[in-house]
Write a sequence for this structure.
């Protein structure tokens, strides 16, 4: 089965803790993305990576960090510096072979800060 | 002005009717436009992409693009209760980024 997986599905964090969200894809896609969605809102770009060992900040990168050591994996760390981390986090990927910028999403991780 | 604007709704349409969803954008350089469907609690699913002016049809869905007026729309014919969801409009900005609207919540009434 080809696709994008995210884990965990639900995550609870105490204030002051760092947490890492996993995103894996077996679609052989080059580009990967992290978005955040708040209730009733659209998606906002946190970080993206076009190739291994390279990534760029999106519109709301403060308080987050990423790595891209393997093509298949793009984990996101939510640090204690992120002031309001409770949100729905979505990972997406895109093949360089497709026209335009068609991105496909994983199932998401819902993070709640207690 | 937001880069991508959608009416947040809710938009209520009777079953079997045509649902019309609209989106306006500010970046005249955008070349790629997308509609995603998102069921409550789930992740977005790509349903249509459109790159040139005019209409693009796929089953019951038709995307319409007018670059001169900077709007893109989605028509859903023969609406079904299973079409009830939030529809997100997205446009490509630059080489890699998508910018999303806040979404329109659509309800199909049986």
């Amino acid at each position: 089965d080809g696709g994008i997986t995210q884990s965990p599905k639900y995550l609870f964090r105490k204030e002051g803790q760092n947490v890492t969200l996993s995103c894996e894809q077996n679609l052989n896609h080059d580009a990967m993305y992290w978005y955040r969605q708040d209730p009733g809102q659209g998606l906002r770009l946190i970080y993206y990576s076009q190739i291994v060992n390279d990534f760029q900040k999106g519109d709301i990168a403060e308080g987050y960090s990423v790595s891209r050591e393997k093509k298949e994996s793009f984990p996101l760390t939510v640090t204690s510096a992120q002031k309001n981390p409770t949100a729905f986090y979505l990972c997406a990927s895109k093949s360089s072979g497709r026209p335009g910028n068609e991105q496909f999403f994983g199932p998401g991780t819902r993070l709640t800060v207690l | 002005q937001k880069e991508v604007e959608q009416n947040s709704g809710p938009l209520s349409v009777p079953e079997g009717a045509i649902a019309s969803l609209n989106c306006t954008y500010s970046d005249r350089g955008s070349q790629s436009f997308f509609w995603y469907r998102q069921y409550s609690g789930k992740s977005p699913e790509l349903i249509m992409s459109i790159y040139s002016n005019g209409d693009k049809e796929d089953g019951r869905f038709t995307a319409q693009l007018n670059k001169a007026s900077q709007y893109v729309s989605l028509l859903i014919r023969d609406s079904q209760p299973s079409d009830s969801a939030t529809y997100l409009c997205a446009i490509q900005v630059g080489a890699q980024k998508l910018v999303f609207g806040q979404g329109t919540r659509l309800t199909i009434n049986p």
Observations:
- Chain B has a mean pLDDT of 94.
- DSSP finds no helices and eleven strands in chain B.
